[in-house]
Write a structure and sequence with these properties.
By secondary structure, the protein is α/β, with parallel strands linked by helices. It is built from 15 helices and ten strands. The chain has two domains: 217 residues, Spore Coat Polysaccharide Biosynthesis Protein SpsA, Chain A; 138 residues, no CATH class. The relative contact order is 0.11.
Length: 417
């Protein structure tokens, strides 16, 4: 009787919302359930203080305006008496080094190599004296006086199998709508909120056999604000020397070794970037390309060539010119990537696909209630950033499906992020 009633309810819901929508909901629920299988809820009795030394590692460059707020937020932290603040600078000329030293930070000697997000952080960690390494960035600051204690408690009390804990970013008060959505969207996509959980690979389970969402949760580590046990960091070789996502690559190593990685949703740092649309074109390309490589995913792009993709985007912008503040400015970065200077007046099958993707992204932003009272110029800027982030992702998918299709992209396209 209970099964029949369940079937009747499901059939009624399906009839009301449509088969396609019903299938999407069921798929999301199943994916969420699979991801939850690798999560362990965490309950703990918070110690009065962290007695071991903690080393804070902050890479800097031209950070004279931002770094003081970051260091001040560290100096008022409660429950962490043995705190070592370390700064690794990459050639600042605005007085960052002098300022850091004056505020009591330990300035590390230069490496003698160009800055690399992975290698440079690993180099800085080699000078640390603490049992725990906390990685932070110069333009982030801890939200409360208990933030550092909240981040370190699961690491200090969770046992030797807990290798790292990552905190949560919250957007800065002056962040634009796209930046706010981007920061909070990361946690929504991973079904993470203000809880504290551990992620670990179940015994007898291969990492590659897990769903994509489960692998993303297993490998979720964000070195904008995270803590890692120094012994384990050294054991696993530190962060790799790659362009982006060095923290995720390192977390994948931890997961495959059977370590647990914690997420503490109450340990919050204020951090976000209001960037140009052209920046997000590059950022999403590099980020999504790395994700496809990292998780071993094979994508099937709806686009067949780079020109086809770019023409489709340019046509979309021109067809919806009222939604973009400056059509020529919006198409310029796309035109720059074209293999041929002349534009083909041709419509591709990818146009409808692009429109659907754009509308889905906009609907997700609308669901966060961020669009209330938005001015037209800000809405136009938001549309451009949505479109360019999708373009970066789709170029990465195209390259993953057919590497020859994107061979010869300008070098500056993958640098400066």
């Amino acid at each position: 009787m209970r099964l029949k009633l369940k079937s009747l309810i499901c059939s009624s819901i399906q009839a009301g919302i449509g088969s396609k929508r019903w299938y999407t909901i069921r798929k999301k629920v199943k994916t969420w359930q699979l991801a939850r299988q690798i999560s362990l809820a965490y309950r703990f009795v918070e110690p009065s203080e962290i007695r071991d030394q903690v080393s804070i590692i902050i890479p800097t460059y031209q950070g004279a305006k931002e770094l003081p707020r970051c260091i001040r937020s560290l100096k008022v932290q409660k429950g962490v008496p043995k705190l070592e603040i370390m700064v690794y600078d990459s050639g600042s000329t605005d007085g960052t080094v002098e300022l850091a030293s004056k505020m009591g930070a330990r300035v590390l000697p230069p490496e003698g190599k160009p800055f690399n997000h992975g290698r440079s952080r690993t180099y800085a960690a080699s000078f640390s004296r603490g049992k725990y390494l906390v990685f932070l960035v110069q333009d982030a600051y801890l939200k409360t006086e208990e933030t550092l204690m909240q981040l370190l408690t699961p690491l200090a009390t969770g046992g030797e199998s807990v290798a790292a804990v990552t905190g949560r970013q919250v957007p800065a008060p002056d962040a634009d709508i796209f930046a706010q959505w981007q920061v909070t969207g990361t946690y929504r996509s991973l079904f993470l909120d203000d809880e504290t959980v551990f992620h670990r690979l179940p015994d007898g389970t291969e990492y590659a056999a897990c769903s994509l969402l489960a692998r993303r949760r297993l490998s979720f580590l964000d070195n904008v604000f995270c803590a890692i046990r120094k012994e384990v960091f050294s054991e696993c070789g530190g962060f790799p020397e790659i362009t982006i996502s060095e923290d995720t690559w390192f977390a994948t190593v931890l997961a495959k070794k059977g370590y647990q990685i914690g997420y503490c949703g109450t340990a919050e740092v204020v951090h976000s970037h209001t960037r140009s649309a052209a920046y997000f074109l590059r950022r999403y390309y590099v980020g999504y390309k790395t994700q496809l490589e990292l998780y071993g995913e094979k994508s099937h792009s709806v686009f067949h060539s780079l020109n086809e993709l770019l023409f489709t985007y340019i046509q979309f912008i021109k067809a919806n010119s009222d939604f973009f503040s400056n059509t020529s400015k919006a198409t310029a970065p796309l035109q720059e990537l074209l293999r041929e200077p002349e534009e083909q007046e041709q419509c591709y099958e990818g146009y409808d696909f692009l429109q659907t993707q754009f509308e889905m992204t906009l609907q997700d932003i609308e669901s966060t209630n961020l669009l209330e009272g938005i001015e037209k110029k800000d809405l136009q800027s938001l549309y451009t950033k949505i479109l360019f982030s999708l373009a970066g992702k789709h170029i990465a998918e195209l390259g993953n499906a057919n590497p020859e299709a994107v061979r010869g992209l300008p070098n500056h396209f993958i640098t400066g992020i």
